[in-house]
Amino acid sequence: MKNCDIIIPVYNAFDFFKKCVESVLKNTDLQNNRLIIIDDKSTDKRIVPFVESCINKREKNIVLIKNEDNLGFIKTVNIGMKLSDNDVLLLNSDTEVTEDWLIKLQRCAYGTEDVATVTPLSNNGTIASIPLFAKVNEIPLGYSLKKYQSLIDKISYKEYPEIPTGVGFCLFIKREALDNIGLFDEESYGIGYGEEEDFCYRCLNYGYKHILCDDVIVYHKSEQSFLDHYKKISDQRMMLLNAKYPFYKGKTDRWCDDYPLKYINKNINYSLCLNNSKANILVLVHAWEEHPYDYKNIGGTTLHAYDLIKGLTAKYNFHVLAPYNGVYRLCSYWETGEESVIIYSTISDCYFNNFYNAEYSKILKDIIQIFNIDIIHIQHMMGHYFDILNILSEKKNALLITLHDLYSVCPRVSKVSYENEYCVHPNEEKCSYCLSKNGDMFIDSKFKKTENIGVWKKLWNRLFSYADRVIVPSEAERELIIAEYKHLNIDIIEHGIEIVKKQVLNIDSDTEFNVAFLGSISRIKGKKIVEELIQYSDSFNDNIHFHLFGLIYSYMFLQTHKNFTYHGLYYRNDLGKLFKDNNIKLVCIFSIWPESYSYTLTESVANNVPVLAIDIGAVGERVKKNKLGWLLKTNADIPEIYRTIKDIFNDKENYKNVSKSIFENKIIGIAEMCNEYDKLYSAFKLDKGKKIETEKLKAFLKINYLYSTNFEREKRGINNSFDKEKKEIYASFEEAKNQIYNSFEGEKKEIYASFEEVKAGIFSSYTWRIGRLITWFPRKIRGLIKRN
User: Fold this and answer.
1) What's the whole-model pTM score?
2) By three-state DSSP, how is residue 588 classified?
3) Cys staple from 629: which of 131, 243, 611, 786, with CB 3.0 to 4.6 Å?
C-alpha cells in the first residue's frame, strides 16, 4: 500500500476551505501522507496566510502551491498529480472528513485487484449521495458529521461495490492507474466538469474498475468554487462524453436509472428512522400509495390514515404495510424522512385457506421484530390475513383498530347484497346464500372468500378481544358494530380535514342551479341513482345542471346529456376551486349503505355547500343533527328525487337558512383528530431502549430490494409489451376505421348519386305532371264555363 498525497485545489470560499483543511489535519495521518494545497489565484486574501500558518505549526508534509494565473480545476489538480509519485486523493475545498477516512479508503482501494479509483459516500455526491440517491442531502437532524459517521460504521454492508465512475468531490486514485492512463484531459475539458468521468472511462478501457467505499462519509457543501462555471458548461460536457464514450455513458445512464445499490441508501434511511428513539407504529391498510396526496382517486380510509401519519410523524415513526400489485409493500414515514420497500412474497390464490397464510405470517413477524414495532394500528383488514392473531396472543404489541365500514360484519364490506340491496336484517342462512353468490367482487384477492358468516364473525371476535382500543368515526357506525359485537367498547373519533375559510351561500341571483356528485361513484355509492337521475332530467328543459367530480364507470356517459358535465378525477385540495368555478350550490350523496363517515359530506360542508342525501348511516345522522341539508327516504324514486332538487332551489329563504346553519357548524380539523389519536398512542408504555436488529435489517432490505428490482423489471417489461400491443391494436383500429370510413364515403357517394338520380326522376315526373296540370286546368275551367 502506497502513501497518499491529498490534493486540495482552492479558489476563494474561504470559510468552507478552512473547515475542510481543519478536518483533514484533525483526522489524517500526515506523518506518512502529504497534504498539497494549490491556490488557483484566489482573490480572497485570507487563503494563503491561513495555509502558511498551518505549515508553520506542522513544519512538514503540507505543501502550498500558488498559481500565477487562474487555471481552473483540471490544470490545477494536474499540477498536484504531476508533483506526486504516490497514490493521490483529490478533495474539494468545500468538504469535511471524519476520523480514519483515508485509512478506510486505502483499505478499500487495495482490497481487490485492478481498482483505479475509490469514492466515499456523501450527503452531496451525485451517484454516491445518501440517503437520497443523486440528491443534495443535509446531515440528518440531530446528527453531527461525527455521529453520522459512527452510525454508518455500525450499519454499513462494507461490500465496497463497483460503480460506473468515480466522483470528483473526493476521489482516491491509485498511482498505477495514473501512470498507465495519464492525467486529466485539459484540452477537451478546459476549466472543468466531466474530466473525472472521462478519466474513469479511460480506466475502464484498461481493465480497471471503480469502487464505492460504503463505510465512509465525506460531507460536501456544494461545488462552491466552480459552481458558476459548471452551470454554463455542464450540457456541453455531457454531449462531449456521449460522443467520446457512447457505450460507457449509456451504461452509466442505465445504471443510474436502475441504481442497483439502492439497498445501501435504504439501509441508511431506515437506520436513521429506527435510531431516533421514537415509538414505531405499524399500520395495516388495504390500499396505499407512497404519497397519497399525489393521486386523485384515493379512498377515505387511505386519506384518513395519511392525514394521521402526516400530523404525527414529529412524535412517532409510522410503517404502512399494504398489498401492492399482488405482493406487499412497506412504506415508512418519520419526522425527517421516508422510505419504502417491496417485500419478497409469493402469496397467491394457491393457498387453500383464505384466512391464514404462513408466508404472510412470516412477513408480519419479521417487520414487527426488525422494525421494533410497539403499536399495531389496523385501519383495514382487507388484503391481510388473520395470522396476526397468533402474533397478538404473545401480548408484546399494543393493538388499535379503526373501523371505516362494515367489513367486520360482512365480507362484502357494505352489507349490500349480490342483488344490490342493503341487507337490513340478515341471518346466517341469508348471509351464507348471499356470500355464495360471490360474483365479480371476489375476483379481487383483497376480499376474503367465505360462505360461513359464523366463522367470519368468530375471527373478528378474537381480533377484537386483543384490541386495546376500537375506534369509529361516528355514532351511527358505533351502533351498527355493537349490534353485532355487543361486548365491544368503542371510542368515537371523528375524521378531520384541512379547514378552509367558509362563506354563507345564497341562490337569490342564480339563473342556473348547479348540482354536484363527488368521489368514486360505485354501485354502493348510488351509481344507478345517478345514472337514472341524469337520464330522467333529459326530459325537462329546467335550469338544473349536474356535475360529476370524480370517477364513475358507466357507458351512459359516452352519450351526450344537455344538462350534465363529467369533470373527471380531482385533487382533494382543488375541490373548493372546482365548486367556485362551477358555482356549485348543492351536493348529492346517494349511498345505498350506511357509510361510517363520508369525506364528501365533510368536504361539501367545509366549502359551505349543502347536501341532499339518503337518510341512512352516518350521512343521515350528521345531516339531521347539524342541519346540513335535506334528506330522502331510502325508497325515494327518481321523480321524487328530481322534484326535491327543484323544490330546494325554489325555496330561496330555506336554502339561505341551511347555508347559515352549515356556516356555523364546526368542522373537525386534522390537528384536532391527530391530538385524539396521540392520546391513545401515548397511553401505552413503550420500551424505547429496544436494541436495533442491525444485521437483520440489512438482510431484510437487501433481499427484498433485489427481489423488488426483478419484480419492477418484469412489470416494466409487461408494461412495455402491453404498450407495444396497444399501439399495434390502435394502428389496426385506425386502419380498420379508415377502411370503414372510405367504404362509407364510397357508399355515401353511391347513395348520393342514386338519390340525385331518383330526385331527378321525381322532379322530371313532377314537372311533367305540373305541365299537364297547367294545361289541363284552364281547359277544364273553359269547359265548365261553356256548360254553365
Assistant:
1) 0.84
2) strand
3) 611
